[in-house]
Structures are given as C-alpha cells and as structure tokens.
Amino acid sequence: MMASVGSIFMITCMTVVSTGLKVDRPWLRVQLSHRAVLECCYRTGAVNQQSTWFVHGQPTNGTAIPVPVFMSDRVSAGYRTRAEVTCGTLTFGEVKVTDVGLYRCWFNISGVLTPGTYLQVYEPLKKTINLTEKTKNSILMAEGILLLLCLLVPSAALFCKSKQLHELQRKAKREEENIYQGLNLDDCDKGANLYQDLVANIREEIQLENP
After folding, report:
1. Low-confidence ranges of the chain (pLDDT < 70)
2. What is the pTM assigned to this prediction?
3. What pLDDT was estimated at residue 74?
4. What is the pLDDT of residue 108?
C-alpha cells in the first residue's frame, strides 16, 4: 500500500499538462472556527476525473508525510462544474488549528497530483480590556475636559500677563505725575531771582573797577 502511494506522488509535469490541470491557489488563510473550501480544478473532458484528497501535515523528523484526508461531519469532499471547468472541493465546516497543512488532490484515473493549497488557520487577537459603554463615555468626557483645559490655561495665563503689564504702566504714569506735582514753584522763582541778583552784582563790580 505504501509503495503504491509513493508511486502516486512521483507524477511528472508532462502528465499534469496533458490533463488540463488548472493552477491551484497557493494558500488560503481562514479564521479559526470559520468555513473553508479548497479546490483542485481541471478542464472538463471526456473522462470524468475522480479525485482523492491528501494532506501534508506537521513534519515528523523534518519530513511531512502525505496522508489521506479523513472525511467526517465537519470535513466533506465534493465536485462542482462551471463552464468547461470541473473542480474537486474539500469543505471544512469549522476549521481547527490541527487542519493546518498542504492539501493536494490526486486524480485517480489520470494519476495526476496537484501542486496543492496550503491552509492557514489563525485566531484573531482578543481584547485585553473589556470596557462598558458607560466607561467609554466617561473616558471621552474626560478627554474633552482635558482638551478644553489645554485651550483655556494658556489663554488665561496670557490674559494675566497682559493685565500685570497694564498695571505696571499705570503705576509708572502715576509716579511720574507725583514727581511733577511735588516740585515747589516758589522755590524755583526764588532761585531765579537770586541768580539775577548775583549777575547784577557782578556787573556793578566790573563797572567800578573800570572807570
């Protein structure tokens, strides 16, 4: 049995071309527990190709041994024909992590083994923090308040600085007015009269010295 299976997987490219084999999809990525459909297609001819699915699972000692796919309620094989193309299908109702592998289709009559499609199964990332709608609304409100503060605080600081500068200008103006108001105009007049008398005395002395 193993010898016959081994001979099946040593099919030449010439045999593949002669059967009108369509190119397989290289890979198929499906979310865990979702439905997956694999296909191996060929041009419809006079001979009805019966196919058997094999899978290369996880490698053992560096070698992935092909084994027939086990059919069940979750995994089923079938056919579909569209125009002049017939496809053998392998359907997974809900994929599991153990379904990962390279799936190849062997046509029993012509003895052709398809290149195969690699099935990938992934599990989406789960939310680490489960927030209720009330919590989300509170966070949005807090963000709005912080944004408002970011706008108001700089404006308030600028207003305070402008007000302080205005007060300093008013204070300087009042001090200047006080300086002018504190001057005694009578003292200024007396000083001017004393200066004039001094100049007059000097002139008289000069005139007496020069008859």
Report:
1. 1-19, 44-49, 58-63, 127-128, 176-211
2. 0.53
3. 94
4. 78
